[in-house]
Please model this.
Amino acid sequence: MRQNLYNSDDCSGIPIPKATTYLKVQVFVDHAKEMKKHTKEFKEIFWDKLLEFWGGILAVFFALLLFLLRRHLKKWFGFEDKK
Model:
């Protein structure tokens, strides 16, 4: 004998209390919806990490550029050592 705990298929509304010695649970999963949800979550995480990565790469590039041009920058801005 099959008895539902809810009157609707989506389990909304007020549950109907039941007592039984044997409990069988059947769950239906919408695989397409779950796949879309996980794909969207993956894309958001990937995009955030990609932007963070490229931000770091640009910071390292500009730091290296400043390091390599430090002598020229000293001359341009008048901080050249007077000997």
The two ends are 100 Å apart (CA to CA).
